[in-house]
Amino acid sequence: MTDNSFFPVKPEIAATAHVNADAYARMYEQSVKDPEGFWGEQGKRLDWIKPYSKVKDVNFHDDVHIRWFHDGTLNVSANCIDRHLATRGDQTAILFEGDDPGVSKAITYRELHEKVSRLANVLKKNGVKKGDRVTIYLPMIPEAAYAMLACTRIGAIHSIVFGGFSPDSLKDRIVDCDSHFVITSDEGLRGGRKVPLKANADKAVAGAPMVKHVLVVKHTGGDVAWTAGRDLWYHEEMESVSADCPPEEMSAEDPLFILYTSGSTGKPKGVLHTTGGYLVYASMTHQYVFDYKDGEVYWCTADVGWVTGHSYIVYGPLANGATTLMFEGIPTYPDVLRFWQVIDKHKVNIFYTAPTAIRSLMREGEGPVKKTSRASLRVLGSVGEPINPEAWMWYYNVVGDARCPIVDTWWQTETGGILITPLVGAIGQKPGSATKPFFGVQPVVVDNEGQILEGETEGNLCIADAWPGMMRTVYGDHERFVQTYFSTFPGKYFTGDGCRRDADGYYWITGRVDDVINVSGHRMGTAEVESALVAHPKVAEAAVVGYPHDLKGQGIYAYVTLNAGEAPTEELRKELVAWVRKEIGPIASPDLIQWAPGLPKTRSGKIMRRILRKIAANEHDSLGDTSTLADPGVVTDLIDNRMNNA
Ligand code: PRX
User: Which residues form the Acetyl-coenzyme A synthetase N-terminal domain (predicted)?
Assistant: First the structure.
């Protein structure tokens, strides 16, 4: 596969798309030459309580400030629900497909309005006020969307913690944003297995004394421990309040949500998104990137615990009055036909998933896919990690029957919405390339010294100017925001990704250039895994890197030095894997642990990760400059004892 494989936009698709090639060129030019005019117009896609007169107020230098539409006021839940009631009150807003294939349910916009209003009143009744932080730790059930929207209705800031995170990770996130209210369920259900969410929340809250209430959705009916006075049943509370809750008037720059994400150093940081710009951007990208048309059924398979679930299961689709499918389960339960059967069952038109899911289903061959029709599909999407051309071709030919364009969407928790992507009716695709920037997005490729590289090139990916959906700060730590994103290449937003730009101006994301790894589309900081490992009483030192993994994209490779006198046994290896799962969650489990009598360090004691990455990737013929190593013998030992991915 080379850069030359090209899938042009089919004329019949361009003819009916929201944006064709000419419109893209014209709109893109306006968006970068006249951002005020362009976004001033686009902002009107929302209902504003008080219209904005200011559009953009941004400074990427010094202390960095980013404001969009900032003198306007609006309410997110009113935009996602109330304004649709007159025209589509009886249309399905959320289509729920349970883990168990026998369970599904359609929630109309009118029902959504009632649930969200009631839940908003439950929050108020229990002391949650505008600006307060509410932590949501729920499975993929409609109540997760109700909870998000209920927060927005009263101006509370939600912080969703993915249900796969451990009690400790949950606790850290509750404490960091000083959240007094937690919403969870008795248990989650994934692939037929129960996840003890309430029990995890109990452990977390034991270390988070600020929590006053835990609201519990009865989902599986499993037994739970109960703390009287603190714990509240969702179904009882919902009955005790009125179904009328007028939406709170919020400023465009009031915080909307916090979402914790991993960086190259330290603990996960609370990425803060605000109200107006975020929703304009989520709604616009959802409509234009997927070419969403009224009445279509749209399915994004992400979890609401990640940013993809925020922007492209809940906020973007509901702002556009779409029918959005929420799936509780996994692609392989009860068997590998599940995705394709759900597509047929609900006549899904737009399907958005992650390369890791595609690769794991591709292993099963064409057989299972071909047992299903998938005739309703019109557009396919990919997100979360680079998609390898082989997986792209399989997705295109086998899943989409060579009929559906694929939008390979590159973006990040920080960016709020999609930044680089094909538009269905405007941009031809090359397998493996995220292609071209969305409106208002100005990618620049820079070398390590920050020099801007022109034309066909490869380097670090930065964005030169702001777009409305970008994060505004790290919650409670603006200095960390400035340091993390604006100090490496001053005056530009640094993405942490490397990329290549080809002769046609197409962007190819090559992966992270920092100490963040991407495991099955889940983002993990190597420093977090290291600190979990060294917290084990037998571990003296640890260094963690990513390595190429056929299914997961990247796997987690840990070099561990034990305390003197500790024996490196198979049991201990298993114990350490279990330890990290318990400390952080299953997504952080090391795939390979190599015992390292010593780690390669410079004479000043800095671990040379570049070398560790090369050894893990089995590329020890190209270690690069090793002259600064304090003890070259360490490297020889590590190479000789490298673990195999067997
Ligand atoms: O490395 C890029 C990769 O995922 C990172 C962002 O992870 P997260 O904040 O968890 O958000 C994931 C969902 C938006 C990026 O820095 N990434 C995401 N999408 C792609 C991608 N890499 C290549 N191609 C993509 N389409």
Answer: 24-80
- The C-alpha atoms of residue 390 and residue 404 are separated, in whole angstroms, by 16
Phi, psi of 527 (to 5 degrees): -65, -35
Q: Give, for 204, the enclosing helix (H) or strand (E).
A: helix 197-206
pLDDT band for 74, please (50, 70, 90 cuts): very high
> Are residues 439 and 38 in contact, defined by beta-carbon separation less than 8 angstroms?
yes
What spacing in Å lies between the alpha carbon of 521 and ligand 1's midpoint?
7
DSSP label at residue 584? T
- pLDDT tier for residue 646 given thresholds of 50, 70 and 90: very low
Measured in Å, residue 356 CA sits from the centre of ligand 1 at 12
Give the tens place of pLDDT for each residue, 510-540.
Answer: 999 999 999 999 999 999 999 999 999 999 9
Atom of ligand 1 nearest to the CA of 434: 26
The answer, yes or no, to whether any atom of ligand 1 lies below 6 A from the CB of 412, is: yes
Identify the DSSP state of 293. Answer: -
Write the pLDDT tens digit of every residue in 79-106. Answer: 999 999 999 999 999 999 999 999 999 9
pLDDT digits (tens, 9 = 90+) for 578-619: 999 999 999 999 999 999 999 999 998 889 999 999 999 999
d(CA 419, CA 144): 26
Which of 411, 484, 499 is the pocket-test mutation for ligand 1 (most atoms within 8 Å of CB)?
411
Question: Is-contact 43 55, C-beta < 8 A?
Answer: yes
Confidence of residue 1 (pLDDT cuts 50, 70, 90): very low
Confidence of residue 645 (pLDDT cuts 50, 70, 90): low
Rounded to the nearest whole angstrom, what is the distance from the C-alpha of residue 394 to the centroid of ligand 1? Answer: 21
Show the tokens assigned to 291.
Answer: 């070419």
Give the separation between CA 509 and CA 498, rounded to whole angstroms: 6
CA atoms within 13 A on the CB side of 164: 16
Three-state DSSP class for residue 113:
helix
Please state the separation of Cα 317 from the chain's center in Å: 16
Q: What is the DSSP letter of 345?
A: H
